[in-house]
Amino acid sequence: MRLSRFFLPVLKETPAEAQIVSHRLMLRAGMIRQEAAGIYAWLPLGFKVLKKIEQIVREEQDRAGAIELLMPTLQLADLWRESGRYDDYGQEMLRITDRHERELLYGPTNEEMITEIFRSYVRSYKDLPKNLYHIQWKFRDEQRPRFGVMRGREFLMKDAYSFDVDEAAGRHSYNQMFVAYLRTFARMGLKAIPMRAETGPIGGDLSHELIVLAETGESVVYCDKNVLDLPIPGEDTDYQSDLSGIVEQWSSIYACTEDVHEQARYEAEVKPENRLETRGIEVGQVFFFGDKYSKPMKAVVAGPDGVERPVQMGSYGVGVSRLVAAIIEASHDDNGIIWPESVAPFGVTILSLKPGDAEVDLACETAYEALTKAGREPLYDDRDERAGGKFATADLIGMPWQLIVGPKGIANGEVELKNRKTGDRQTLSLPDALKALGA
Ligand SMILES: Nc1ncnc2c1ncn2[C@@H]1O[C@H](COP(=O)(O)OP(=O)(O)OP(=O)(O)O)[C@@H](O)[C@H]1O
Ligand SMILES: [Mg+2]
């Protein structure tokens, strides 16, 4: 992409309304625009990151055996009356009436709808297990939308729902999602710790929140520092095998959200020097809730004995849009964002320090073509601007690499390659720099 043709409305001033660094940087880097409280337009740079995060989530769900579908954002109120949640959900639910006076709502989550779909087609244990997910916009009329996309009213969520014949099988599905989440967040460069959590309006008795430690986080958490060093399961993990060892390894070390924290147990189990009481960002949550929805909604399957029973369910959410902000909270410096390679909107920024200079143009075009061909998605700053402004923008928008091409260097056959994270700069020939970038 040539920056002269792209749409990157970078702000010079720090927006006064933004209280946390990720919100400030997302506004300054032209990633989002607020259209109403807690409702954002995703500008091209932000949208690219959102899509990359979504794709990692999708790949890890698929790897774990979940199957993607897409449910609508609007749902019938009557469906929610079946579970009893229509009245319980309260003011967070956006309720809508259509021209036929039919009551609808903008989905805050999808347990009811997926249960309705499941019960329409599945009757026998032979069709189980099933885990169905979608990645869809949700709406919750949050009392205090704040911190940009961190706590929006409209936000993008991945939500998966598992269906099993009995509790033991249901726990296996829970474990599969638990492991998938460890891998998902690690691939984004995040350390997300599963912490025992309250189940809230979703219900059930087994739940973990996946928390990224951050001072700006809204959740208060208590944990044993040792949990930070546990290994992440590899790509070759066999999701059909028994995963309880991995889940046990993570859940045997103390890590709790405020809601379920027990001070006495914490002090008994965790040595004083290992105690960590801090804040974090909830990027995902897993629940096992058995027949909470299947029973009232009559989603039953016949077991091997021919007897019908409510299907055992769990649900598993990831805050896809919140993750964009969470990654920035975890990875930035005074000059701007530092994208991990896996979610960077572009792989490398090419900075032309003198557009119009024949040698510089030639080197930049050569690099642009080679990097594009190699799939490195270069962003080519070909604008007629001061070098200082270009350096500042490149640091702000945070691509992992900067390829700096100036007239002095090119006269010696050299370019500079800067690593955004470490700040290291290397002077190389153009072919060597391209080789270092995998082109
Ligand atoms: N208002 C929101 N804005 C952005 N992301 C959200 C919001 N609410 C929830 N999420 C994300 O969706 C995921 C799954 O939803 P879940 O129902 O568990 O949320 P929640 O527990 O109500 O979240 P919170 O406690 O932050 O309000 C959460 O882990 C979080 O990452
Ligand atoms: Mg939650």
What would you say this structure looks like, in words?
This protein has helices spanning 21-28, 44-63, 77-83, 85-88, 111-121, 167-187, 244-251, 263-269, 320-330, 358-373, 387-397, 407-411, 430-436, and strands at 32-36, 39-42, 67-68, 74-76, 94-97, 103-106, 130-139, 154-164, 192-196, 206-213, 219-224, 255-257, 275-290, 300-302, 308-310, 312-319, 332-333, 336-337, 348-352, 378-381, 401-405, 414-419, 425-429. A hairpin with a 5-residue loop joins strand 22 (414-419) and strand 23 (425-429). It has 13 helices and 23 strands. Helix 2 packs across helix 9 (320-330). The model has no long low-confidence stretch (mean pLDDT 97). The protein has 439 residues and is α+β, with helices and mostly antiparallel strands. It folds into 2 domains: 21-337, BirA Bifunctional Protein, domain 2 (2-Layer Sandwich); 348-436, Rossmann fold. Strands 3, 7, 8, 9, 10, 11, 12, 13 and 16 form a 9-stranded mixed β-sheet that branches. Strands 20-19-21-22-23 form a 5-stranded mixed β-sheet, sandwiched between helices. A 3-stranded antiparallel β-sheet has the order 4-6-5. The structure holds adenosine-5'-triphosphate and magnesium ion.
Tell me the layout of helices and strands.
Blueprint: H1 21-28, E1 32-36, E2 39-42, H2 44-63, E3 67-68, E4 74-76, H3 77-83, H4 85-88, E5 94-97, E6 103-106, H5 111-121, E7 130-139, E8 154-164, H6 167-187, E9 192-196, E10 206-213, E11 219-224, H7 244-251, E12 255-257, H8 263-269, E13 275-290, E14 300-302, E15 308-310, E16 312-319, H9 320-330, E17 332-333, E18 336-337, E19 348-352, H10 358-373, E20 378-381, H11 387-397, E21 401-405, H12 407-411, E22 414-419, E23 425-429, H13 430-436
Parallel strand pairs: 3-7, 19-20, 19-21
Antiparallel strand pairs: 1-2, 4-6, 5-6, 7-8, 8-16, 9-10, 10-13, 11-12, 11-13, 13-16, 14-15, 17-18, 21-22, 22-23
Helix pairs in contact: 1-9, 2-6, 2-9
This protein binds adenosine-5'-triphosphate (ATP) and magnesium ion.
